[in-house]
Amino acid sequence: MASSTITNADRPVDFSSILKPREEFAQPQASGSGERLNRWFDQLMLQSGLGISPGIVLMLCLLGGITVGGLIFVLQENFLTTALAAVVGFLLPVFFLMYVRSSRQNQILGQLPAMLEELARAATTGRSVEQCLQLVAADTPSPLGEELQLCVRRMQMGMPMRDAVADLPDRTGLMTLRLFCMTLGVHQQTGGDLVWVLEQLSKTIRDRLQYLGRLRAMTAASRATALLMVVLPPGVLVFFTLRDPEYFSKLMGSSWGRNGTIIAFTLTMIGTIWVLRILRDSQRT
């Protein structure tokens, strides 16, 4: 297979340094639990693909907490239930972003095999990898097409292809795209049969998606039970609190009720984190 490559003399001048950096809460050289939380929040914003800044989402979280907490306070006039409702309202935008990110990742995974096959067919025509990627990016629908078009625009501004696609796995949160980026980078440096590699990568991804589909089908009941165990305790507490506004105050007024609630809350949080980690690891691709 013959494929042309762009030499340094033919490459346009690099204007990529004028690109506006993303707004992030995390500091590059900082460490600690707070910075890990900021980094996770920045990744959630980036991988959701909504294109809004973290500051706006933080304002929405504050607005949600004030709105839900104020509504519960008007209905019940209880500071404890108001505080719990404010926490729930504060986290609602975060849960929505997590849902959007998961849906977007599933769409990208479904588009990957067809995109790789089209890229392999384009490479058989003798075009360069950059030209093939530009052609495929224009034909691929959103959301994967948007990510590829961003890489193409970077290359058009003079950025090397290896650098243009380097953060593609971080922008999507998919490890499968890291293999794709490594394939393009290695081919650009050493050459080789790119068509065969892309076809094998597409076949591997299709097999992996089929395996994950069977795994989700077999573990659907277990995952539903795990989620029910996570949702049921706070649901019961909300039910009794709505039925009797003084229920939570009476519960926390006694020593055994307060200690039992703290222990139950701690164990529930540990179990929730454990279940969520298991579900995340089982769906990680």
TrEMBL record:
Record-linked Pfam families: T2SSF
Membrane topology of the entry: Multi-pass membrane protein
Predominant subcellular localization, coarse grouping: membrane
Residues in Type II secretion system protein GspF domain copies: 116-240
Cellular localisation: Cell membrane
Keywords, sorted A to Z: Cell membrane, Membrane, Transmembrane, Transmembrane helix
GO cellular component terms given for this protein: plasma membrane
UniProt keyword Transmembrane present: yes
Residue stretches spanning the membrane: 49-73, 79-100, 224-242, 262-279
Protein name: Bacterial type II secretion system protein F domain protein
Species in which this protein is naturally found: Planctopirus ephydatiae
